[in-house]
Amino acid sequence: MNFKKSFKYLLKPRKVEKTFFNQFSGGKRWIFNWGLDQRKESWENEKKRISLFDQNNELVYLKKREDLAWLKNIHSQVLQQSLNDLDRAFVNFFNGLKKNIQIGYPKFKCKGEKDSFRYPQGVKVKEDKVWLPKIGWIKFKKTREVEGVIKQTTIIKERDNWYVVFSCEIEKEEPKVNIDPEKTLGIDLGLKYFANLAIGKENHFVTIENPKYLKKALKKLQFLSKELSKKNKGGKNRYKARKKLSNLHCYLKNLRLDFFHKLALMIVKSHDIIGVEKMNIKAMMRGLKTLSRAISDAAWGMFLSCLKNKALEYGKNLYEVSSFLESTRLCSNCGKKNEMKLGQSKYICECGQNIDRDLNAAINIKNLAVGASV
Asked: What is the pLDDT of residues 252-290, one digit of tens each?
């Protein structure tokens, strides 16, 4: 069994090495913007599309130009990866048009926003040091061992720190899990509570509080956004204001990831069969602004992705139940569908069922997951 796993570590670069990082991320950004500009002009003027193959070939000629001689100092594969990202952005955009899904047209990248660069190969790890081609050995804070084969390495700047992320492929024997009926779980995700859990044969009801990180920090985010809008473009004060805002967004993202990883690990280690509902989150976010903000704050998609990866790693059975089931309306006792108003907290059925609506939904999801495993 092969599965992918990422390992992220804090780098400890010296001043010279930080300069290299800025040069490489700047070169990657410049190539992306050059490629995007070339594609736009070609289409607007000649109605002609430029392929990834053509743009990769042009990199050789770009490096020969006197005004672009600095590109020679940057590893060629880093520049090629930038063009790969651009091509993928166009592919996603056109696929979205075919499927009538709103995916934005590729945008030009700005300095200081999501600075990063990537190596597809050539990276080596020795104890607490990583070898980056054309940069050299860099120390990092080794908090755990790197597992598996490194497939690609990304250097990312977050706040004022640089991180290295190893994307690895790990080969393991598929674990044999003895399915215990008491270790079954149905998860109904929500907004009032982040998750409603129905556990085991007895359907023990457990609720997980919604941390609402965005809501708690909303006033501060709005204040920093207003401060940024007041600053003159290109000025140092605008750069400082943008940095404060991006730092807060990064902090909130890390809080969410920490919460998701801990919750997903606890669920996967304690249960053999896990049922979740497959949700069309993008469609749900097209409604009211306050509702879409709350859904964005909950970040269900990020949590489900984390849960899937951990279930695969530990060899547990995770089943995604179709949303067409209408788990909220379906009676978990007799199977009859009843109308449910939005503000109704109890599920009441003619068969005598009278339970919390979220517990009812979680039981339905769990029962379907158990049925699928048989």
From this structure: 999 999 999 999 999 999 998 999 988 888 778 777 777
Mean pLDDT of 164-183: 80
d(CA 363, CA 367): 6
Name the amino acid, one letter, at 155. Answer: I
Mean pLDDT value across residues 9-27: 95
Q: Whole-angstrom Cα distance, residue 280 to residue 322?
A: 10
Tokens of 256: 């969410």
**CA 142/CA 365 separation, integer angstroms:** 40
The domains located in the chain, with CATH, are: 2-171 (no CATH), 181-373 (3.30.420)
109 DSSP 8-state letter: -
| 190 close to 358: Cβ distance less than 8 angstroms | yes
Task: Return the pLDDT at 32.
Answer: 96
Distance CA 115, CA 78 (A): 13
Bridge-partner residues for 140, per DSSP? 11
- Expressed in percent and rounded to 5, the helix, strand and coil fractions of the chain are 50, 25, 30
- At 142, list the tokens: 């080794």
In this model, does residue 360 exceed pLDDT 90?
no
Three-class SS state of 188? strand
C-alpha span between 90 and 75 (Å, rounded): 24
CA gap 344, 361 in Å, rounded: 13
105, 6, 153, 80: CA torsion to nearest 10: -30
**In which band, very low, low, confident or very high, does the pLDDT at 233 lie, cut at 50, 70 and 90?**
confident
Task: Determine contact, residues 11/138, Cβ cutoff 8 Å.
Answer: yes
Contact assessment for residue 119 and residue 153, using Cβ atoms and an 8 Å cutoff = yes
